[in-house]
# Entry
Amino acid sequence: MYIYRKEDLSVYYWVKDMFSDVAFLTVVDSFPDQILEVPTISIDAGFLDEEPYELGNRDKIRVRKWYIDVFAKNKSQRDDMGYRLMYNSTDGISINDYDEGFPPAVTPSVIGHMAISANSYEPVPVILDLNEKLYYRGQVILVTQNDTV
# Structure
């Protein structure tokens, strides 16, 4: 499995673990393309950029942007989830080796770490005329840096 996919899965399970105390929350690994069950958190990887790390070496620093969308029943629920994501992003995200298996059957080994170099949270306005079902939305954007090869 490519390291990029391991990063994707690591962010997905990081969010799932963070909200394990919320039994009625759905976490999806892409922007929802079907009828939404609220509350839902979706995770989408944005750009991927690799920059040389050291002259004469093949190691690279990977910079990635993550879009984490929060869909909630009300403003308070949206903000609580957005603030929790922001607060927990200060320590970065461990990268796990999912070639060993997946939770809960297996606890994969940590093979790297993505430091958060930037994060932001923004409530997204809901336009009532364009939505059949009313929900509140927010977006957390994380920019991570990983030098694991």
